[in-house]
Amino acid sequence: MRIYGDLVSGNCLKVKIVADLVGLSYEWVPVDILKGESRTPDYLSRFPAGQVPGLELDDGRCLAQSNAIMRYLARDSALIPGEDFLRAKMDEWLFWEQYSHEPAIAVCRFEMRYLGKPSEARDPARVRRGEAALDLMERHLAGAQWMVGHGVSLADVALFAYTQWADEGGFDLTARPAIRAWLGRCTQALRPAAAD
Questions:
Q1: Is the separation of the CB atoms in 193 and 21 below 8 Å?
Q2: What is the Cα–Cα distance from 49 to 89, expressed in whole angstroms?
Q3: Residue 41 to residue 194: CA distance in whole angstroms
Q4: Which tens digit of pLDDT belongs to each residue from 170-189?
Q5: Cα(168)–Cα(108) distance, rounded to whole angstroms?
Q6: pLDDT of 52-63, one tens digit each?
Q7: Contact, 80 vs 163, CB < 8 A?
Q8: Does residue 193 have a pLDDT over 60?
Q9: Averaged pLDDT, 141-154
Q10: Which of left, alpha, beta for 152 (phi over 0: left; psi -120 to 50: alpha)?
Q11: CB-CB contact of 162 with 10 (8 Å)
Q12: Other CB atoms within 10 Å distance of the CB of residue 111
């Protein structure tokens, strides 16, 4: 099994975290998105959208989109709640992460960290969207240890990836103690596997 990705991307990091947590054997294939390596004919033959991460199974089948890959890799693990409603709540957070959280937090981070733009150059609508996403997480986590249920799930992995770097996109977490505490719990629960 091969996982194609660039670890400057939270979307790639979360797939690597899941693969490591569930103890899968895989080859990590580095794809430098800043050098356009996800746009080569070889890469596009596997992943036509030209995005990272990508998963190539031993039989040659390929799967794209980080949350779909995480869902597949974790299918028989404790990272997916066993109860139907909690599984649906996890999916709710996964869809929200890709629609409301990642497009704001990740894009602001990319522009500031990798394109060298100052925080003042961020799109105000994107900044408002990112602040609203972080505010929603703060409200939720003020009354919960994890995003879903009583333990770490794919919802935590997905949201951890870019929330941990929110400051690199100009977002201040100092007034969000519940998120900061949750990030600490995630670091303990997720980082040992990601560091292997």
A1: yes
A2: 28
A3: 30
A4: 999 999 999 999 999 999 99
A5: 8
A6: 999 999 999 999
A7: no
A8: no
A9: 97
A10: beta
A11: yes
A12: 19
Phi-psi region of 64 (alpha: psi -120 to 50; beta: other; left: phi over 0): beta
Query: Nearest-CA neighbor of 14 among 61, 78, 62, 68?
Result: 68
Alpha-carbon distance 80 to 148, whole Å?
10
Q: Is the pTM value of this prediction over 0.90?
A: yes
Grouping H, G, I as helix, E, B as strand and the rest as coil, residue 35 is: helix
Q: Is the pLDDT of residue 194 over 50?
A: no
For the chain, list the domains and their CATH numbers.
2-73 (3.40.30.10), 84-195 (1.20.1050.10)
The pLDDT tens digits of the residues spanning 77-105 come to 999 999 999 999 999 999 999 999 999 99
Q: Cα 92 to chain center, whole Å?
A: 14
State how far the Cα of 91 lies from the Cα of 51, in Å rounded to an integer.
21
State the Cα–Cα distance between residues 178 and 135, nearest whole angstrom: 10
Distances (CA, A) of 52 to 5, 48, 97, 172: 5, 11, 16, 27
Do 53 and 9 touch, CB atoms closer than 8 A? yes
